[in-house]
Amino acid sequence: MIADEDQGAAVQVVVAPRVRRDAPLEDGAWHVVGTGDGAVVLACVLRADVDERRVGALRLGGRVAADACFGVGEQLVERSRHVGNRRLAAMFEEGLAELHTHLGGSVASDIMWSLAHEQGIALPTRDYWEFDRLVTVSDPRGVPDLDSLDRIYHLTELIQSSPLAVERSVHAAIGGAYRSQRITTLELRFNPMKRNRGGERDLDHIILAAIRGLDLASLEYPQVRAGLILMMDRTFTSEQNMVIVEKALRYASRGVVGVDIAGPRPGGARYDYTQIREHVELARDGGLGVTIHVGEEGAELGIAEIGEVVEALRPDRLGHGILAAHEPSLMHAIREAEITLEVCPTSNLLTKALANEEAVRETFRTFVEHGVPFTIATDGPEMMRTHLRDEFELLLRIGALDETELAAANARGHDVSFVARRARALR
């Protein structure tokens, strides 16, 4: 509750679903949704998950905001926003850095819906709201495991499997990131082979489409430094992954700034990261940044994989890497190698990689105490139903990081980005 002396009332902040751009309410804005018992009830519009939307009204937990409610207590609305965000706003005047976001999770559901219909893709449902639940982690309890998350990604990859869809997706992701969150350093990652329909589409056309989306966004949003990271996959053959690295090198001068590897472990067994050592060395020698998905889950198996990656691959960054918090010697190795972790708090909660907010807090405090460098990311804001500012606010709220530590993590994100390194190399 936020007290207001002038009005003699209190402001109760109620988190509500976010309404999409085609809805009558402004995305990300505060709206009065009711009054009673001397309080003005507010809702921060966060997600599109309501079945009933009409001009001047929003159904929220059984309450309906009538036209008459809108405008009541507007000063309280603005004051509540200011109180909650002024410290973060002051820290991020120069813009936010988002280094770990997947293209399949970075495009709004309504855009994905339109892209699917424009391409004549047979979707599993004809209802938009059911589709929205299929392409996002719609259950606030999260997903049972990473395999369930992979099934969501499979649908988004299918929809993005054409030059048209990839170009539109990249453009939308960059523009949305700047407009919504004032993100000024952004690296989008995707696997082009998972978007060429098993070889039906030419791989170069897919990558060039992403570059066109990047170029168009750079014209519209010159404040944003954006780059593309091409992803290998743990289920691919060595030859397939080498093709991806070679394509990344070929288009390094056009906006591809790094390589990554992700995907499920074949058979659920420990993945042998040494089999991509040659791939990583080739990418690094060609001036590309290297980030590796590892240590997100898997307990002792995941911890062992981090150790192997740090020793054998020597990447610039680790995607997630949160299991390192359980092993002091591993944290020492990461710090000494100047490897930065890309930590995605909400994603880790939704995938059960971290059990609860206390586990998030303990993980970050451990990294701070051991001097492990990290950045904050979303993993895919639309799919995870979060945004980068939400991540910072979460960490501040639960005591995982203070304002100074949050600012340092954001500044580090700008500094260790592959797009910044590319810019420094060109000077």
Topology-level CATH name of the largest domain? TIM Barrel
Total number of distinct structural domains: 2
CATH superfamily of the largest domain: Metal-dependent hydrolases
Largest sheet: 8 strands, parallel
User: How far is the first residue's CA from the last residue's CA?
Assistant: 51 Å
Parts with pLDDT < 50 across at least 5 consecutive residues: 1-84
* CATH class term of the largest domain: Alpha Beta
Description:
The chain is α/β, with parallel strands linked by helices and 427 residues long. The chain has two domains: 2-66 and 76-89, no CATH class; 96-425, Alpha-Beta Barrel (TIM Barrel). Helices cover 44% and strands 19% of the residues. The chain is built from 16 helices and 15 strands. The strands form three sheets. Strands 8-9-10-11-12-13-14-15 form an eight-stranded parallel beta sheet, sandwiched between helices. Helix 5 packs parallel to helix 6. The radius of gyration is 22 Å and the shape is globular. It starts with a strand and ends with a helix. The model is unreliable at 1-84 (pLDDT under 50).
Compact description:
With 427 residues, this protein is α/β, with parallel strands linked by helices.
Primary descriptors:
single chain; 427 residues; alpha/beta; TIM Barrel; 2 domains; eight-stranded parallel β-sheet; 16 helices; 19% strand; globular; disordered N terminus
